[in-house]
Amino acid sequence: MTGILNNLLEQALTVIPGQHGEYMRFKSRTTNDAGQYVSKYFPPQKVYGSFQPVPRTLYEAMGLDYKKVYWMLFTTTVIRGLKRTKGVDRVMYSGMTFDVETEGGWQPVDGWGGLMMVKVEND
Question: Would you give per-residue pLDDT tens digits along the chain (123 residues)?
Fold first, then answer.
């Protein structure tokens, strides 16, 4: 039974449409001449899953900032997420760039996980 549950999302994505995106794991951070932090990332990796915008009607209940745009990604790809002492991993999807917002980045459920992302407006 466990083997079936561990692949639940992968099985579902064979029936319902998923989306392709790219995931960039944080590598390092330096400062530029203006003293601003500049993040460097490992080369992008393909990620497949279900990208879903978070409805604004849920922002208050979830304690989210109305000035930001949030999305969820449900995938079997392990994504690290926000590290307070380092940088943040990034996901690109449909011409948009997202910072992974969830610390630890992962809410595991039966071998797959969901992570909260915030859209990057200016990069």
Answer: 344 444 555 666 666 678 899 999 889 888 999 999 888 999 999 998 889 899 999 999 988 999 999 999 888 777 766 655 567 889 999 999 999 887 544 455 555 677 889 999 865
Helices (H) and strands (E) in the chain, counts: 3, 9
The domain segmentation of the chain, as residue ranges, is 2-119
Centre a 10 Å sphere on the Cβ of residue 90 and count the other Cβ atoms it contains: 21
Q: Spelled out in words, what is the top-level CATH class assigned to the domain 2-119?
A: mainly beta
Torsion angle (degrees, nearest 10) of CA 93, 94, 97, 99? -40
> Do 48 and 14 contact (CB within 8 A), yes or no?
no
3-state DSSP helix/strand/coil percent for the chain, to nearest 5? Answer: 15, 45, 40
Kindly compute the dihedral angle of the four CA atoms of residues 25, 29, 34, 36, in this order, to the nearest 10 degrees: 60
Q: Which two tokens stand for residue 54?
A: 């978070």
Instruction: Report angle CA 28, 106, 73 to the nearest 5 degrees.
Output: 90
